[in-house]
């Protein structure tokens, strides 16, 4: 599978929060099982309702989700998921650019996120200028200064 055509990739406000929560659960089940994280799809849908939720669409089909929030002068990437068959095809990088666009439109210059230490997404974030600013037993807390 090659890199998707940029013109066919679209970020659209999420219409189905439960469906987006299900996609997240499918992607994250390995990590949730490893760390015994409880998961309730309806609860997650309710918790994410206040976020800026985007479906990532390729040829009008959902291939991922991006959830953002603005807090204390920082744009938080609350969730970035790409379904397994489309990982490593540039979609995550495009989602990070979308997060940057959103932050800059809000005049915010810091992108922040937390990621499981065992997640392969850590390398994506490092390649795109994020640095670890804190860590605990499960997570890296990462930031990118958009002015740099």
UniProtKB/TrEMBL annotation:
Domain N-acetyltransferase stretches: 9-147
Origin superkingdom: Bacteria
SUPFAM superfamilies: Acyl-CoA N-acyltransferases (Nat)
GO molecular function, one term: acyltransferase activity, transferring groups other than amino-acyl groups
Protein name stated in the entry: Acetyltransferase
Organism field: Alteromonas halophila
């Amino acid at each position: 599978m090659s890199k998707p055509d940029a013109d066919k990739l679209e970020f659209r406000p999420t219409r189905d929060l439960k469906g987006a929560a299900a996609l997240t659960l499918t992607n994250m089940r390995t990590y949730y099982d490893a760390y015994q994280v409880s998961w309730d799809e309806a609860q997650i849908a309710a918790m994410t309702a206040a976020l800026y939720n985007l479906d990532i669409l390729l040829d009008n089909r959902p291939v991922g989700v991006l959830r953002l929030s603005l807090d204390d002068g920082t744009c938080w990437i609350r969730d970035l998921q790409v379904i397994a068959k489309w990982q490593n095809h540039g979609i995550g990088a495009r989602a990070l650019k979308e997060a940057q666009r959103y932050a800059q439109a809000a005049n915010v210059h810091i992108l922040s996120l937390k990621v499981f230490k065992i997640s392969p997404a850590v390398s994506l974030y490092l390649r795109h200028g994020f640095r670890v600013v804190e860590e605990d037993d499960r997570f890296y807390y990462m930031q990118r200064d958009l002015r740099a």
